[in-house]
Amino acid sequence: MTALLEVTNLEAWYGESQALHGVDLKVGEGEMITILGRNGVGKTTTLRTIMGMIRNRKGSIRLAGKDMLSVPLHKTAKHGIGFVPEERGIFATLTVEENLMLPPVVAAGGMDLDEIYELFPNLLERRTSPGTKLSGGEQQMLAMARILRTGIKVLLLDEPTEGLAPVIVQRIGEVLQKLKGRGMTVVLVEQNFRFAAKITDRFYLMDHGQMVGDFPVSDLPNRMGELNKVLGV
Amino acid sequence: MTMIFGVPIQALLGQLLVGLINGSFYAMLSLGLAVIFGLLRVINFAHGAQYMLGAFVAYLGLQYLGINFWAALVITPLVVALFGAIIERLLLSRLYDLDPLYGLLFTFGLALVIEGTFRWLYGAAGQPYSVPPQLAGGTNLGFMFLPNYRAFVVVVSLVGCIATWALIEKTRLGSYLRAATENPTLVQAFGINVPVLLTLTYALGAGLAGFTGVLAAPIYQVSPLMGTNLIIVVFAVVVVGGMGSIMGAIVTGYMLGIAEGLTKVFYPEASNIVIFVIMAIVLLIRPAGLFGKDA
């Protein structure tokens, strides 16, 4: 398997304090991986560091063979990578449609507005409302839809199901299935491994700022002991 | 003579017009301040100096290059905007990671340097700048005499305010600006060059001040200290309107200009302080300003 995204020995710091202690990660083209771990072990930091939002970093991030460490933040997206933050990052002073249209298209092959509205009919209905007037589930849909327009190939998705009702979680699962069908490569951070198990190809276990395990989803039943230890459940 | 509230209607309308003119300048200047503060979080103390610079560029252009008022109205804002862009790129942008106080102190120092330079070159006395011939004279409305140039200033500043508002609230570029105000890091991660947006925004604010300076040149005289006198009132306007609120800056600018004008009719002694009295009352009742969002 050739890796589309390959992270080697990645370290990152918030000011003086080190948050990542040598993260290794490989994601093949069209693959979906899920990073599991307790709160505060560095899952979100891993995504933010790959995206370049945390600049105090060392190690190697290669996207389709290209070294990303030297790429400035505003040029990172052009290499075909997008980030949906846990807090969703919907802008209150922008309407739903302005939120949708905000990220510039970086490559052909993204969804157009019609496709997006077909996939997320709620957004069409509410396209002139301020972005933050949407429900939590709708905001999550908007945050994902917004990135899908841009034609990126690698999606970094941070806890999309957090705090949402089961029916919305199921809907997000369907959307992710659809993305996989389109060949999207996804790095998912999730606390809810039962949700992730339905859609992911592989799991990474994270603890203390590094990966401590890596196994395919089919291996999950054999790994429950390890999983419980890392998740502390 | 027709009287309203015990005041001759001519006096009332005359002061209302003066208030509207002053309000136009307040609105245009506080709008620029609000645009800059909204995105850069910098309180631009150099705004008055940039307004003065606009008037001087128009004056010097006419004296040495024969650039008439109409050409100056287009060229001057671009010159002042370019000056603003250079200042932002070379100096101001180095202060973003520091406490906002540094930006305030820097622009304050910059204002002193600019004004000091012009005072040294041209003295403190005002230079006359005549009303363009097309707008000389006035129109008799029957109940009052309306100087054409002043009517022109009111209309142009209104158009300028609405155009700026529309640029920020209704265009793609404006949505970038609004989004970057909320969460610059995420906007940058989307692939938008936020540092360039910051430069453009500061240039836009400075250009607006320069444009206002050209409009003001034929009404007030062109003098190195014309900005200092005005900017204190404009800061009061921004505080009343609410920091960073675009519409708030515009509406409050006109409102306070008119309030000042009317005070001149009914109680002239208070006209110089009425804006600051209103500011104090607003700060007590609504610290975030009339149009500001409570943070």
Automatic annotation (TrEMBL), chain A:
User: Which protein is depicted?
Assistant: Branched-chain amino acid transport system ATP-binding protein
The entry's keywords:
Amino-acid transport, ATP-binding, Nucleotide-binding, Transport
Source organism per UniProt: Allorhizobium borbori
Domain annotation ABC transporter: ranges: 5-233
Which CDD domains did the record assign?
A: ABC_TM1139_LivF_branched
- PROSITE patterns named among the record's database cross-references: ABC_TRANSPORTER_1, ABC_TRANSPORTER_2
Which residues span the membrane? none
* One annotated GO molecular function: ATP hydrolysis activity
Per the record, the domain of life is Bacteria
UniProt xrefs under SMART domains: AAA
In the record, the note on similarity to other proteins reads:
Belongs to the ABC transporter superfamily.
Q: Which GO terms describe its biological process?
A: L-amino acid transport
Q: Check the record and name the Pfam families matching this protein.
A: ABC_tran
TrEMBL record, chain B:
Topologically, how does it sit relative to the membrane?
A: Multi-pass membrane protein
Please provide the record's keywords in A-Z order. Amino-acid transport, Cell membrane, Membrane, Transmembrane, Transmembrane helix, Transport
Q: Where in the cell is it found?
A: Cell membrane
Residue ranges crossing the lipid bilayer per the database entry: 12-39, 51-67, 73-92, 101-122, 149-168, 189-211, 231-258, 270-289
Which GO molecular-function terms appear in the entry?
transmembrane transporter activity
Q: Does the keyword Transmembrane apply?
A: yes
InterPro entries in the cross-refs: ABC_transp_permease, BCAA_transport_permease
Instruction: Give a Gene Ontology cellular component term annotated to this protein.
Output: plasma membrane
User: What family does the Swiss-Prot or TrEMBL record give for this protein?
Assistant: Belongs to the binding-protein-dependent transport system permease family. LivHM subfamily.
**Protein name, please?**
Branched-chain amino acid transport system permease protein
Species this protein is from: Allorhizobium borbori
